[in-house]
Design brief:
alpha+beta, Butyryl-CoA Dehydrogenase, subunit A, domain 3, six-stranded mixed β-sheet, four-stranded mixed β-sheet, 14 strands, 48% helix, 14% strand, globular, binds flavin-adenine dinucleotide, binds iron/sulfur cluster
């Protein structure tokens, strides 16, 4: 089987047998749980679209020649990367949340390239192992989660200097046929909706940190693996009868803390073991690939927010005002700027020694630094144009109340012909994206996901060709000898 249907994916998730806790309770089926269900549905949409829009959502595997989901594809041209960015925008438009599968897609592309480089340097066999793992992922249409970020304890200390060694995932024992690891990976997007966990180091490492320079894959159901689901603002609205106020009734993002409590990793699933000089390179490549992805997914969510803002202006009779049009134009300008830089970093991508293609790293970092800012400004403008009712509105359920329902229907209605229900639903969607469960992805993840802003500043400073910019300036003004 190369392409699963949405229903086949959801059943595969129910049968996974992984250990998941939500608010202290172990969950039997992630898609059927009221809190985690929308997250599973967002991931499932990547399967649905492969069936409905194969021209964008599928690709040809370079390993088998079979048609596979583009989320499991290794990019082999700049066109492939451009298609990825366009696909992610489309998914953002469809779900208005983090649909999760791109983190694993960017991780497989990064580990694919770096295992090749490690083999060249150390005469190891990681790349062939990784290709086998990849074939398994592609042929089963599985999702691998990208598990990079450690808990990190005292951030001023390297992994080997931490008082509690488990603050960074590390090797505790080498055994026959593999090794045993311990630690935790935090914030993992879509972890509970993934079949496999692809684990990578979280930072550049030195010789003392050899035991932390480890990359591998294990099934989500591996012994010793536990998922603890992350809370999101307003998530318990999903538990209310009829879920009237969730804003985005079908979809949601999800993250989890994943504990690896003495987990056995078989040798054939180990892709880095002690080659510490390559840890930083893997982090940088994954970060760059994922930073470009944000210029797809967040832009798609931006489209939804801009559309909802336009709709609320029409419902409230403000959309023809000059300042309304000006602010919507500003939102579009910011959103398209994000997409433009992502497309540029894809178009300027380069072939890696492994044969795969990676994004232009400087432009990827510029894209992500803009992402840490522009969605906040777009969100501010949406809140400006929506009005204070965004945060003071009664429940949609109140419209049905025998005593107060009439008041709600009367005073929450918009201009003539617009019902309270229509207006309140649009407002709830805006609220979801800028303040509710959707804001996890649209706003805070825009700051920290794929690395906090300072990480992009460091990379931009490192990658920009300042020597040539300086010599252009000095040549033009006729200055010599200024060293
Ligand atoms: C919604 C969401 C989804 C995510 N999904 C994934 C995922 O799928 N997989 C994954 O691996 N990770 C994921 N991440 C993690 C993301 O990569 C991290 O949040 C990011 O790298 C920042 O790490 P942190 O959250 O631990 O912040 P911290 O490291 O605690 O940083 C907080 C602040 O401290 C600063 N700081 C950190 N260290 C130092 C230092 N040594 N000196 C000075 N200042 C410092 C930072 O610049 C920042 O300003 C996700 C994060 C979010 C929010
Ligand atoms: S933040 Fe965007 S790019 Fe990353 S996993 Fe979520 S939807 Fe995909």
């Amino acid at each position: 089987m190369t392409l699963m249907t949405k229903d086949e994916y959801l059943s595969s998730l129910k049968d996974l047998g992984h250990r998941v806790f939500i608010q202290g309770e172990q969950v039997a089926s992630v898609p059927d749980n009221r809190i985690s269900g929308p997250g599973a549905m967002a991931m499932a949409e990547t399967y649905e679209q492969a069936q409905k829009a194969p021209e964008l959502f599928t690709a040809e595997s370079h390993l088998t020649g079979e048609t596979i989901n583009r989320f499991a594809h290794i990019q082999h041209s700049t066109e492939d990367i451009i298609k990825k960015v366009v696909m992610l925008r489309e998914m953002g438009r469809r779900t208005a949340c983090c649909f999760q599968r791109c983190a694993g897609m960017d991780a497989i592309n990064s580990v694919y390239a770096i295992t090749y480089d490690i083999d060249q340097e150390y005469d190891t066999q990681y790349h062939a192992r990784f290709r086998d793992f990849l074939k398994y992922i592609q042929q089963n249409d599985f999702v691998p989660a990208a598990c990079m970020t450690d808990s990190k304890g005292d951030r001023s200390l390297s992994p080997s200097r931490q008082k509690d060694m488990d603050q960074y995932l590390h090797v505790v024992e080498e055994t026959k046929g593999g090794l045993v690891v311990r630690g935790a990976k935090l914030h993992t997007t879509g972890g509970v909706n993934s079949h496999e966990l692809l684990v990578m180091p979280t930072r550049a490492l030195g010789a003392d940190d050899r035991d932390f320079a480890i990359a591998f894959a294990v099934p989500a159901s591996a012994k010793g693996v536990t998922f603890v689901y992350g809370r999101q603002p307003s998530d318990t609205r999903r538990l209310e009868k009829g879920r009237p106020d969730v804003g985005n009734p079908c979809f949601g993002g999800c993250e989890s803390l994943i504990v690896f409590d003495d987990v056995f990793v078989p040798e054939e699933r180990i892709f880095m073991k002690g080659e510490y000089p390559f840890a930083g390179r893997l982090v940088e490549l994954f970060a760059a690939n994922h930073r470009t992805s944000y210029g797809g997914c967040k832009v798609g969510v931006g489209d939804v927010l801009i559309g909802a803002t336009q709709a609320i202006g029409q419902a409230q009779g403000t959309e023809k005002a000059a300042h309304f049009k000006d602010k919507v134009a500003e939102m579009i300008h910011l959103n398209e700027t994000l997409h433009g830089v992502a497309l540029a970093s894809a178009a300027m991508g380069k072939q890696t020694p492994s044969g795969s293609f990676a994004v232009d790293q400087l432009l990827a970092n510029v894209c992500k630094l803009n992402i840490t800012r522009f969605p906040f400004e777009i969100s501010r403008l949406a809140q400006d144009l929506a009005g204070g009712i965004l945060v003071t509105m009664p429940s949609l359920e109140d419209q049905k109340h025998p005593e107060i329902g009439g008041y709600i229907r009367k005073y929450m209605a918009g201009r003539e012909g617009v019902t309270s229900d229509q207006r309140m639903r649009v407002l709830r969607l805006i609220e979801n994206i800028v303040l509710g469960t959707g804001a996890v992805s649209y706003l805070t993840e825009s700051i920290h996901g794929a690395g906090s802003p300072q990480a992009q500043k460091i990379m931009i400073t490192r990658l920009a060709d300042m020597a040539s910019a300086r010599s252009c300036a000095l040549r033009l003004c006729g200055v010599e000898g200024l060293d």
